[in-house]
Amino acid sequence: MQSANRLLLRGIRSTRCTTSTAISSHHLRLLPHCGSPSLSRLPQRRHASLDSSPPPPVPQQQSSPHPPPPPPESSSPPPSSPPRPKKSLRPYIYATLFLATGLLLGQSLRYTILPPPLPHAHSPVDALLLAELSHTLSTLHLVRSLRDDPEWREWDAYSNYVTGAERAHRLTTGPLAGARGIGLQKVFFNAAAGQAISVIWFGGGVEGWPGIVHGGVIATVMDESTARVATRGLKGRTGVTANLSLNYRAPTFSNNFYVLRVGPVEEGSTERKAVAPATLETLDGKVCVEARGLFVVPKDEKVAKSLGEIPEGF
Description:
The chain is α+β, with helices and mostly antiparallel strands. The chain has eight helices and seven strands; from the N terminus they run ααααααβββαββββα. It has helices at 2-19, 25-30, 37-51, 90-113, 124-138, 141-148, 215-230, 301-307, and strands at residues 153-156, 185-190, 195-202, 240-248, 256-262, 273-281, 287-296. The radius of gyration is 63 Å and the shape is elongated. The model is unreliable at 17-51 (pLDDT under 50).
């Protein structure tokens, strides 16, 4: 029985081996190896020949005898790092200007609203201030030109009119005296032209508003200055104020020199009445106050004689 099975297996194997030549190499790999050595080696040799075949050659580019030209250089400069922003000096300049302006305005307001205490009239400090003011007045161009003209006569206001103890009881030579008031007033008079020019100092003690000369002080000065010219043509060389009109055109600042121009008298003036115009100006010629004074001789002769003649040096 066993011998019969072996013969059957051999027959099957021989049949498979004879038909294997018609099967592709792929199917041969799947079949069991035959007893014939030539059939078992055939697929391996074929695959070996296929696997060992060299790869096709890669075409190489022919090298040029001249090297390729270099790439063109770019005309634009190479990119650089962004510049660092510079620190501006403008904030420091503004801060300095604001600081300087604040200091100047602060000092100005301080001396205007709350000025330092002023010296009393006739004190040693006041005498030094008046001497310095007198020297400054002598350097003014207007004063030098009037002194050089022989037609103009010069004197200090009230120098020959009020003397001794009477000076302290008069308004202009008493309470308003000294460098703090109107203690310095030079009068120049031209008899031929009938005009008078006064250079006057307004101190810090005659203010109304801070830094502004009181209007009443200006009216007092205008009254006496117009009387200085108008009464010269009146009977008995005396008279009283009948009307005084003023027009304040600009502020008059304290601690400054001003020029007061009077005359000549207006047409129509007689020995009983006279009208004298006047202006108060800065040294540059800016008109601050305009005035017009009317002076008359009292009808009562006794009153007129009691007034007395207004002397030179008023």
